[in-house]
Protein 1
Amino acid sequence: MAPLEEAQKTSLICMAEIVGVHGIKGVVKLKLFGDNPAALTDYAPLCDAQNKRSYKITHLHAHGNTLLAELEGVSDRTAAEKLRGTKLYLPREHFPEIKDDKTFYHADLIGMAAVDTAGAPMGKVVTVANFGAGDLLEIKPLKGASYYLPFTDACVPKVDLPARKVTIAPPPGLLE
C-alpha cells in the first residue's frame, strides 16, 4: 500500500489494481480485491491512493482470472502502460455498514495488533490475502519473517475493532 495519512487509510478502500494492458486501444487488466466486480462501476468514479485523480470505468468484462476495463480518457496502450501498478480506491462512504460481527473490510484489519490468547503481543496484521482457498492474515511478528494465518474462528478467535487488535491462535507447528 502506498504511504498514506492514517485518516486517509481508513477513508479509502482498495478495490483493484491495474496489473497490465490488453491490446493497443488503452484497455487495462485489473486484479480485483473485492468480491463484486459490478461495484467497480456501480460506485464510480474510482480514485488513486492520494484521492487526486479519478478513474471512470466505461466498460468492464471478465478475461480469464482478471478483468478488462476501459477507462475514460485512456485511449492507447502508452497511456494504459503508465497506469500499471496503480491501485484503484473507492471512498469508504460508498460502502454499507457491516452489521455481521464476523464480517470485516480488509482495510479495517490491516495494521491491527496481533496478540496471543493470553494477550501477549505477537506482531501486527500487515495484509489480508486470498490465494483461492479462503482469507489469510499476514502477521508480521515482533522479530523474524512474516507468516500467513488462516482467517478462521480457530486461528483468529477474536477481532476487536474498537481496540484495533486480533487474538490469534496459530496452529501447532506454524511458528516452529
Protein 2
Amino acid sequence: MTHPREPRVFIVSGPSGSGKSTLVKKLLELPGTILSISCTTRPPRATEKNGEWYNFISEEEFERMIQRGEFLEYARVFGRHYYGTPRRWVEEARRQGLDLVLEIDVQGAAQVKQKLPEAVAIFILPPSRGELEQRIRARGQDSEGEIARRLERAHQEMQHYREYDFIVINDDQERAGRDVQAIALAMRCQQPANEFRVRQILESFGG
C-alpha cells in the first residue's frame, strides 16, 4: 500500500561538460522520480528529440508563457536563448507523489531555492579546467569561440558552489552516480519527508 507524501525537488547544476546530464539519469534510475522537462528557444541538436529533455519552442511562445506566469524559473543563457522550468512539473510531481529532478543552471537554481527553499540543490564539479575543456572538445559541437565562452561561463558558475546543499566532483562517473543517488535516498529519510507515515505508524500503536 502506498502512502501520500510531499515530493522532494532535486536541483542539479554544473558547468557544460561536467557530466550533470549523465548524473541526472542516475537519479532518474531511482524509483519514484520524474524529470522536469525544460522549455528552450534554442534549436535542437542532431541527437535531441522534442519532449525528451527539452521542449523546443519559439521565443514568442516563451515570452507568452512568461507573461502568463507559467515558469517556476527562467533565464536567458549566454545572452542568446531562453531556458525555463514550467511550473506545472511541480504540480504533476505532487499529484503523482513523485520526486522531481530539475537540471538547471545557477540562475534558475537561485530562483527555485527562493520559491522552494526546501529543494535540495546539488552542484556537479569537473575535476579540473583541463578535463572540462577536453570533455567539451570531445563532443565536437562547438567552435573555438564557443569553447572559450563555455569555459569562462564554467568559471563564473563555479563561484556559486557555496549556494548548494551538496557538491559532487565528477572525476569518476560510477562513484559520482552512486553519490547523487545516496544524496536523494538520504533526503528521503529525513524526518519531515516521513512525517505523515510516522504519524500513521504511531496511531497504529494507539497514538
